[in-house]
């Protein structure tokens, strides 16, 4: 029953009675005492010591009391004398404690308040305690820092008793001026709110020690004249200024403050939705219904009117009543039902259970509200049994919660746009809170949706059945999740918990949302797949070491930076047999080739499917399934794209494959591949470095390289196609790096690639019998290869070196004004040593191998039809395109044949070649690559030698 006293009306025009003011103050203190007793009753006996000792530990800086730092820490509350109960609690804590009054020393502290949910319907033993410690305005900065350190030490002490204590240290003057030092953290509202927080403080605070709030004494109808009334009370000495603390008036909530305050509540609502929903709706109510008074004003008016019952003045009851009136006036019955659920669940009191634990006053207060809502016993039972809710029910409730949070976000975004620069929340805080909201609720492809953001205690199931679609006669891939199937045939009549395109997706969703526990019994109906219970357990063991569940919130530091991948888990061949075509026939391949990407004589790629699970720095979990095309290369490309954004912090990459079908070997091979590729492209924590990486897989080659920050690959079906790709001109030096298993059938080419370096033209050669091979890696890393007959090393190398000397000479003459050195020539012989082929330097060959003979020069001519033709010069004889046309090559061959003494055919070599700079009509090439000279040289030599044979 509501307890009433006679109303107190203060008339500032006709005069104020000091006794009436004291009576009004005592009335607030009576309500304050009821709330303090209720706050203590919600705590255990040991935890109550925190509330009992808090005023004393700040009033007396005593070494026997908790939080003591040193003898210089400020202390002493104005007008405070500890009662006998407090002194008894201190002696229980420390027998050596003795209280002595310090006399007339000026106190350093003004007031101590507890605010928020303590002493209200929404408070429980798990609630935290938010304390305002207000010091005098002129306290030195060193004293303030000492108080803050003491507050931190007290929080640690309280934590040891199971109490989450937060002490905020500031002065009333700093508060009025908006100078309190805050940022968005776990318990601070950052720059988001000032008057809203003051509104909450005035209606929820419990005075613990020191000065009383001056706001108590200002009538609601004089709130707009607050400063005038305050001066009248103090200057006319109706009150002593030292007895009261002034945080200022709350005549209204500035519109500029609402967006920031609302976004802050959205931030809190991600992990604790029930309280946040109530506060978000209050903010919307304040924003859209500015005719009604604020809740703090309603609370104060009720006390002035004589209401002194803690039940009637309970902040949560006043909040609910205000929201009920507002929503019913706006035809918001559905939203009101969510408000009722939120209030009921925030209270944490299961009214339908016998022998329920909870303060009797809280139980009776909540029961009276529920009776007014018309809820049935079945409704209560359903809410109280949330630990038995299944995933489908939670998803339904989550949709309603997210819909409400989304509605609030859109409203707040509109308000922020309207306020623009006047909005009180900083751009940094908006960005930070927006990122957390995005990470928690934004849907995007592949993201694993978390369906239980603090809605129910657990979603763990006793039995789960994973069914392949083919079990029910359906075509194609896909999996279905059921619960409690005693007989597989029951699946036709049981509801499906969830459907997914692949087994890994379904398994990761179950794991992240807590449906799977160590005691969950699993059943698999594999259908056309090869999945098994043992495979599922293998994957779950790996997931347990990869992802913490439940997922902790992302830290502030991570949210303040761009999102980046933290770690990837690659699940290979889930529910797939990579050698199914052989297993069905009972065959097993035997071969010396054990590379999982080119296994056995048929060079089978044993990586059929990949499920890439990524945890990023904002603690989002995503899954991408690769099952078509070149799955491994696609996955590798996407991982490289992730890393390229921030190469200084490489993500951890783990690989797992089911133990069947060479699973461990496959996982090891893929893990090696990813490690090798990342090391090459991002060595030293920078990159991507310019290079071309060769992967040989499934009888094909893949050439992987970056274009700026974007990775790409080219698939090549043959060795010839690979050589053609490696020969192509480059814009800068690009070394060729073969994978550790690539080019095993081409060891000479692999040795050439491994020995390539920037800044020179490298000539590699190998001579066996009368067969010689030449490789040239030019100054930009383009690779040219030639195979020809030669009896001696001199015959093999001299023509090429002579030609390269001519190219370099022309380049040096043309770049005479360029201080950069022109690439020189280095020679290497390919030799076999210790079982492998190596490039052995032969610097003595670079000095030159004089070869007497015919001087054959070619000069490129770019004609109007964009076809490159050549004028040829044999010694001093000129053969031009203008004169000979299409008969140029036969004419030159005829001339060369006429100069020879022997009728035996032998090859002719170009000694010099000039190319025009507009080889490409749309591009002017100031510097033509050596590989381009070699290409046209080979074309002309082949044409001439064909006519000479």
UniProtKB/TrEMBL annotation:
<dbReference type="GO" id="GO:0004016">
    <property type="term" value="F:adenylate cyclase activity"/>
</dbReference>
<dbReference type="InterPro" id="IPR000274">
    <property type="entry name" value="Adenylate_cyclase_1"/>
</dbReference>
<dbReference type="Pfam" id="PF12633">
    <property type="entry name" value="Adenyl_cycl_N"/>
</dbReference>
<dbReference type="GO" id="GO:0006171">
    <property type="term" value="P:cAMP biosynthetic process"/>
</dbReference>
<protein>
    <submittedName>
        <fullName>Adenylate cyclase</fullName>
    </submittedName>
</protein>
<dbReference type="InterPro" id="IPR024685">
    <property type="entry name" value="Adenylate_cyclase_1_N"/>
</dbReference>
<dbReference type="Pfam" id="PF01295">
    <property type="entry name" value="Adenylate_cycl"/>
</dbReference>
<feature type="domain" description="Adenylate cyclase class-I N-terminal">
    <location>
        <begin position="21"/>
        <end position="216"/>
    </location>
</feature>
